[in-house]
Amino acid sequence: MPENEYRILIINPGSTSTKIGIFDNDISILEKTIRHDTEIINSFANIIDQYEFRKNTILETLDYEGINISKLKAVCGRGGLLRPIEGGTYAVNEQMLADLRTGYSGQHASNLGGIIAFEIASALNIPAYIVDPVVVDELDPIARISGFPLIERKSIFHALNQKAVARRVAKELGKDYNALNLIVVHMGGGITVGVHKQGRVVEVNNGLHGEGPYSPERAGTVPGGDLVALCFSGEYYREEIMKMLVGQGGLVGYLGTNDAVKVEERIAAGDIEAKLIYDAMAYQVAKEVGAASAVLSGKVEAIILTGGLAYGRDFVTAISNRINWIADVIIQPGEDELQALAEGALRVLRGEEKVKIYPGNLKKAKI
């Protein structure tokens, strides 16, 4: 392998599957989705206990595909629910491993990414990285103020895809991401609208629960007083309320499906309610973008719409028609997390960015 070529193994664990990729520099030479037997997955008491099983399955798959892992220069895993950190590529270290194993900010399959990457990389004496986990926190101090002293606003969003897409668009524009003001809208099962001010996401809605536009599965911002009344009505358990906010909110709550394609088919067949709910979701996204532009005092170079919902032409058009007066709207549909992770590792390997050491300068926000 040439000296300036870097072969990187990418690991992105999901709840019942693990996506892996082999990249030579930024070119994908292998991408596989390993689907795990649900009985085996459910046999583990905790998510973290799955790492040895998943690691062995990854190594077996690579061997079957004829990949010589001795040629790897680095391993990069999906970042998990860590402490709030600034964006970038981080070396997996003992502190990170401890936080991933204990689930510092919660248990999630993505916590396994850094652990498995470290295990494989250590045996090969090469570096292990993570890139832009969902807990990336670059909020300005003013953005943390909620209006309710007992609650501080949190930064939980689609950092990996938002940052990757923003960098790609900046490159296409012939400009430096760290010198641009962008608004990036990730639209998937959850929707997050990030204000990228010269390379830092200084404002973003909490995409997990509690803020922003409703989405295919999440309720977004709901009237606080009415929510409190519902919580104390005696009709619901805490878990039921949370499920209605995350998982059964948004399109699922109104229309019984999180599949935007099915909603569009219903609209095409004349379903008036489906059209209203779908249009209202686009309306809320546009409204959030308008608020985001105020953070930048209207000085916005571009607005980027990305994620799975960006494939929906009518949905994207409905949003664009309301916001294209602010700045040019650029459509980057889908999300390629394997590519984004590879690009993050590659920037460090090439010396374009300095690797960051976890936990770095901890934020005050607690997740």
Radius of gyration: 21 Å
On the 0 to 100 scale, the average pLDDT is: 94
Q: pLDDT below 50 for ≥5 consecutive residues: which ranges?
A: none
> How many helices in DSSP terms?
12
Broad structural category: alpha/beta
Q: How many β-strand stretches?
A: 12
CA distance, first residue to last residue: 43 Å
Helical fraction equals: 25-40%
Percent of residues in β-strands: 15-25%
Q: Strands across the major sheet, in which order?
A: 3-2-1-4-6-5-12
What's the overall geometry?
A: globular
Q: Quick one: biggest sheet?
A: 7 strands, mixed
Helix and strand run: EEEHHEEHHEHEEEHHHHHEHEHE
Task: Describe it.
Helices cover about 35% and strands about 20% of the residues. The protein has about 375 residues and is α/β, with parallel strands linked by helices. Strands 3-2-1-4-6-5-12 form a seven-stranded mixed beta sheet, sandwiched between helices. A five-stranded mixed beta sheet has the order 9-8-7-10-11, sandwiched between helices. The N and C termini lie far apart (about 45 Å).
Summary, kept brief:
The protein has helices at residues 38-42, 51-64, 94-102, 111-124, 159-172, 224-231, 238-245, 250-255, 260-268, 272-295, 313-323, 337-349; strands at residues 7-13, 17-24, 27-35, 74-78, 89-91, 128-131, 181-187, 191-197, 200-204, 302-307, 328-333, 356-357.
